[in-house]
Fold this sequence. Notes:
Blueprint lengths: L1 E2 L8 E4 L2 E11 L7 E8 L5 E7 L3 E4 L3 E11 L2 E6 L5 E5 L15 E7 L2 E6 L3 E9 L12 E6 L4 E5 L7 E5 L4 E5 L2
Antiparallel strand pairs: 1-6, 2-3, 2-6, 3-4, 4-5, 7-8, 7-10, 8-9, 10-11, 12-13, 12-15, 13-14, 15-16
Amino acid sequence: MANSGDIxxxxxxxxxxELCRIEEYQHRTPGNLRAFYQARMxxxxxxxxxxxxxxxxxxxxxxxxxxxxxxxxxxxxEFIVVMDNDNYEQIHLPAFLLGDSLKFLKEGMEIKVSFExxxxxxxxxxxxxxxxxxxxxxxxxxxxxxxxxxxxxxxTGAVVNVPLFVNEGxxxxxxxxxNSYVERVK
Length: 186
């Protein structure tokens, strides 16, 4: 058993019998009260946010999680099919594990899948993806006094706001954590 001082953002805990991942974690020492840790956790089964205060030195159950890089093959209904690169075994993962970033995945991309034993509990897409713009309105000349953005449709069907100078057919880099434009790719 670990104690509350050993926890960091991204740690997976068993809290009230459920698996939870730490989203935010702060050490607080208010006035003349005892110090405590304020934790904001996401339940991995239903996605709900749970907040809790842990006393300093309180025992917590940290779950051992194994990570594997797997290749995204295709979506299938409410699941996605991924392949283990070592033994070519295909696994069906629930699509909600990826959340909104599922719309940025193309066939052949590497995703990071977390397992507790043999059960997949988390899936993370690459932080940055490079996609081609399939549709974007042309920018209006002279409309560059401010950072004006326009919607652009990617090859995967995702819509991202991009600057006016980016045109259809160009390849751009997108941050999957914030669903935002980063830069053009040469």
